[in-house]
Amino acid sequence: MVTKTEHLYIVKDSLILNGEPIITGTRTPVRAVVELWRLGQTPEEIRTELPHLTTAAIFDALSYYSDHQEDINAYIERNRVPDDLVDPRAKKL
User: Fold this and answer.
1) Can you give the pTM of this predicted structure?
2) CATH classification (class only), 2-80
């Protein structure tokens, strides 16, 4: 079941990522945009990484994050790979 949010480009679909907020028409969670932004990427750079998203959708995801930081931070933490499970080759990047 798709549930609209107060943000045009953000929905929750109980069949996708257990209802985690995603970009409309995709399986891309808001947290994916937020994590790239937290790594210092601009919305334009995020679009290069996630070319299926429009610039407007990226800005809306960041706006959604601004309104729902606690929830999105919880999704980020739940999906974080523990340091001891990260391949040593990846840590060198």
Assistant:
1) 0.88
2) mainly alpha
